[in-house]
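Q: Hi! Curious about what Ribose 5-phosphate isomerase B looks like structurally. Here's the sequence.
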Amino acid sequence: MKVAIASDHGGVNIRKEIKKLMDEMGIEYIDLGCECGTSVDYPDYAIPVAEKVARGEVDRGILICGTGIGMSIAANKVKGVRCALVHDVFSARATREHNDSNVLAMGERVIGPGLAREIAKVWLTTKYEGGRHENRLNKIKKYEEENL
Ligand code: RB5
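A: Let's find out. The predicted structure is below.
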C-alpha cells in the first residue's frame, strides 16, 4: 500500500506521528507538506493528496488540519474521493468496512497524537466489506458521473 500524507500548520505534530507509525508498519508514503513556517491554506494540501488518490498514484490519503473539517471538505470535492473525518476508533473501522473511505482526515486541535495513531492504524488495516455497501457507493459514483 502507498499513502500520500499532508497537513496544514494546524496538523504538523500528528502528521509526524502518523509518518512514524507508517515507518513502523512498513507502509510506503509520500509527504506533500506543509513546510509550515507560517500559516498556510488547507486546500493547497488537501487537493493534491486527493488528486493522487483519485488518479490511482497512491492507494490512500491522510490529511490533518486543526479540526480536520477543512481538509475533508476540500478532499471530497475531488471526484472518486471518499474522505472520512474521524476522531474515534469505532468510526475509523466503520468507514473502511462500510464506506471504503480512501482518505482519512483528522484534527490536531480535537484529538491527541495517541488516539490519532490508533485511528490511523485501524483505518490503514481494515478491509472494505463490500456486499450491501457496494450498491450505496455505486449511487455516489453514479451521481458523480451524471451531475455537476
Ligand atoms: C487553520 O487555522 C484552521 O482553520 C485549519 O487548520 C482547519 O481547522 C480548517 O478546517
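A: A fun detail: Residues 8, 10, 42, 65-67, 69-70 surround D-ribose (CB under 6 Å).
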